[in-house]
Amino acid sequence: MRKKFIIAAGIVLGSVALILLFLTQILSAIGFHPHYERQDFDLAGKRALIIATNHGTLGDPADGVATGVYGSELTIPYYEFSDAGMTVDVASPSGGKIPFEPVGLRWPLATPADHRYLDDEEAQNKTANSLRIGEIDVSDYDLIFMSGGWGAAYDLGVSPELGEKITQAHAEDILLGSVCHGALGFLMAKDVDGSPLVEGRTMTGVTDKQVEELGIGITPQHPERELRAQGANFVSSTAFRDFFATYVAVDGNIVTGQNQNSSGETAQKLLAMLAERN
């Protein structure tokens, strides 16, 4: 009996060890940060601006859970753009520190881009000392990308200055992108005729289903709800849990990604569109 118990225990422990060893690959296989087709681009001389949140707590600022930008929603686009030879700046509504959702930078959720960021002093300096969006001339950039994360639900969608900058950038036909809650950054922007920029546009972002499944209904703005309220044609994919779904929508100069799984594909689409303009 003892021998059988030891063998059974060994099998269980071995199985657990294998699962832990390959957990990152298992998560990817079921939809978390899935493989995406990518192409190398040479866009030296072009400039990209990544915008992220300044908000660092989920719930009560005094005792809320730490949050911010979700790591891969900034790091993956950052390195896609910089590896294409682009100069990449980082901004936020208030300037200064951009907080990171801590869980996303840890095993097993951290991506290769996250690990690269954690060893990249220059990139860390840019997020610790981000530019203030109101002081930026959007004409200096060829594309603008808004990262998500739960923190973005508190500031991107209610920033008049961000709305003004996205309005100006759209009027100049600058490429605009977002992922996850980053789509909230479009809410205060206007089209050239003065109507809401998102009205009638096909767009995506975090679904109401994912918000419910993750239990973050406490956040003041939810991308699907807000985009639909302004008349956007909201599209998305679904999965057994939407945390494992992904979708990218393109409408004119605007490219939006559903959630963290869509960061790379969204960035790649923007690069391809910029390359076509050269």
List the helices and strands and how they pair.
Layout: H1 2-21, H2 23-29, E1 47-51, E2 57-58, E3 65-66, H3 71-83, E4 87-92, H4 112-118, H5 121-128, E5 131-132, E6 143-146, H6 152-155, H7 160-171, E7 175-179, E8 202-203, H8 208-214, H9 223-229, E9 233-234, E10 248-251, E11 254-257, H10 263-277
Parallel strand pairs: 1-4, 1-6, 4-5, 6-7, 7-11, 8-9
Antiparallel strand pairs: 2-3, 10-11
Which properties best describe this structure?
278 residues; alpha/beta; Rossmann fold; 11 strands; globular
Query: Numbering strands along the chain, what is their spatial order in the largest sheet?
Result: 5-4-1-6-7-11-10
Radius of gyration: 20 Å
Provide the number of structural domains. Answer: 1
Silhouette: globular
User: Which ranges are low-confidence, i.e. pLDDT below 50, for 5 or more consecutive residues?
Assistant: 8-20
How many separate helices? Answer: 10
User: In CATH's first tier, which class applies?
Assistant: Alpha Beta
Tell me the series of helices and strands, N- to C-terminal. Answer: HHEEEHEHHEEHHEEHHEEEH
In CATH, the topology is named Rossmann fold
CATH homologous superfamily (4th level) name: Class I glutamine amidotransferase (GATase) domain
Determine the structural class based on helices, strands and strand pairing: alpha/beta
Strand content: 5-15%
List how many beta strands DSSP finds: 11
CATH architecture designation: 3-Layer(aba) Sandwich
Question: If you average the pLDDT, what whole number results?
Answer: 93
What does the main sheet amount to? Answer: 7 strands, mixed
In helices, the fraction of residues equals 25-40%
CA-CA gap between termini? 73 Å
